Amino acid sequence: MTSQEAKNRLKGYKFSENAQGETPTIKNPEKFLSEKYADKFSFGIHNLSRQGVFQLLGWEYNFRPFLKKYVVKQYNNWQEYYAPNKTLLRKILSGRIEKIVEIN
User: I need a labelling partner for 87 at 20 to 30 A (CA). Which of 19, 60, 79, 81 fits?
Assistant: First the structure.
């Protein structure tokens, strides 16, 4: 395994007593994110877009290093979201979007 492959792996952290087995890893986080953000009804997309974390079967994955933080003005309110890019963020939001601003 090259150092780049090791760097791109994402390790899960136990957040529940019900988590079983070895610590799971996601080998390609970018591909995982693009699949999740492609479908706005995907399981766990709400926590992923709002908090930058994905929870599954007692394990939590922190995707914040792979995501950008945006502030979105929609219906006269500002909300914070995490997404890989603006295009994928627009795919999961419904309704009229007035403005999207990236936060560094």
Answer: 60
**The residue to which tokens 């591909």 are assigned:** 31
Task: With CA atoms as reference, report the closest residue to 26 among 36, 38, 17, 16.
Answer: 36
Residue 84 near residue 49, CB atoms below 8 Å: no
For residues 12 and 27, what is the distance between their CA atoms, to the nearest angstrom? 11
40 CB-near residues (< 8 Å, 6+ apart)? 91, 92, 93, 94
Lookup: tokens for 77:
């309110």
In the numeric block, the tokens 């791109």 are attached to 8
Three-state DSSP string of 53-100: EEEECCEEEECHHHCEEEEEEECCEEEEEEECCHHHHHHHCCCCCCEE
pTM of the model: 0.84
* CA atoms of 34 and 97, how far apart (whole Å): 21
